[in-house]
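FW: tagging you since you asked about this chain on Friday. Here's the raw sequence from the shared folder, copied in full. Didn't touch anything.
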Amino acid sequence: MLNEIMDKYLASKPDARCCWFNHEWISRRDFKELADKVTEGLKASGFGAGQRLAVLMPNSPVMLAVLLATWRLGGVFCPLNEKTGELSLIKTLGLLKPFAVVLSDNVKPELESALNGAGWQSVRLNPEKFAGTEKFSGTLQPADDFDKTLAVIFSTSGTTGDPKAVPLTHSNILDNINACLEHVPDLVPGDSLINVLPNFHAFGFTICCVLPFVLDATQVLLASFMPPSNTIKAIEETKPTVLLLVPTMVGFAASMLERMGKKLSGIKLLIAGGDRYNTKIDDRVTAAFGTPLIEGYGITECSPVLAVNPKPSVRKLGTVGPALPRFQIQLRSEAGEILPIPGEGVLWTRGPSVTSGYYHADEINHERFVDGWFNTGDYVQIDSDGYIKILDRVTDIIIVGGFNVYPQEVEAVLAEHDGVSLAVVVGMPNNISGEVPKAYVIRSQGSEVSEGELVKFCKERLSHYKVPRSIEFVDSLPVSATGKILRRVLRQKEREKS
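HL: got it, structure written out here
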């Protein structure tokens, strides 16, 4: 379905711009030729309908071509984050069972060796060019029987440290894109959108990679936001009309522009999601970007956008706006009782953008999906106009610069150390990344383990953004009458310090 839309886009105006990369605009004709080469190579390898292709590549025309080729052949695109770490990736691949793993040619050889050693065949591709001689090789896996219309599977480490995956269909993604276009009237054909969010991030994938093809727009591809000065230079060179960022990026760019004594022009929409926006810098952001920021909210399971302020003139600062069309929403108590709106409670939703369930995970599906309704795990406030304000994350997820950190995963690593009797991890406010992990640790009897030792231990086993930035040794932890550790007490303690 989505591949047909992409191919129609490419055929409609062959000489028109498709995307910008490395200071060069690529026409739709040239991108189609690239995608055709990748499709031929992938097909020749035996890849076909129902197979999954794991991809560890930065944003680039070649990555987009691999995406289109996968869909043309009826396959499922599975974007992964190479910085997740070898052990986590191998666990995830065991869940996904891909035909092959596509690696960027700058992926460390040690990672490639580890993946190959675990039995997963890989191919290296240059993100900047595809000659057509590259050989895909893979192993046919059972065709996916979860849903024959699957388009993409997003992976996370899950709340227990075990891999968890969110499968989305072509219909899920297309409905979410159409709902965004209906809800945000200033998104129109001919726009140019910046695509700097990583493609393994659902916001970056659906809205930055795929939406431009549906909208008949162009996209400015950047492999990375860092350093911010390079992103600012790309914006100045290409003049995109729409910027899609996470709040951390907005803050970095605003500060950089202030130091450079510059202001951006020509931007009609600045949209941020993926984390809480610091409203204290709103005036500075408006001055730097030339337009007010409109905040949205999404969750991978919703393909991902669930709500957004429709446009600057009707935004309510501090909220993520009302729900998109076709999303039904409810407030419920933690016990599942339906609560009135306006009011506060746990946000539940259902609609055609919402996944039908986690990938091969019956137990967690029973917990999060009830009679077609999905529990987002977020505690929110909804006003009489339907505008949503995120109050807290019931699931205790820590969001570091837009990326999820599951406390239980970090706690499990800390617990492996002989010097640790008990560890609890919470989010600590941070001006740059929004939050960073902090660990409260009770030492084992007789242990004198230091903060430095534990940080080093975590660095060897976790992605950099998951490593605790601070470790506080304590003799006890706050608990409820039933013995449950009260994380909210620890979080409040950290907020009071900030």
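FW: The mean pLDDT is 92.
HL: agreed, and Residues 2-168 form a domain with the Rossmann fold fold (CATH 3.40.50.980).
FW: great, closing this out.
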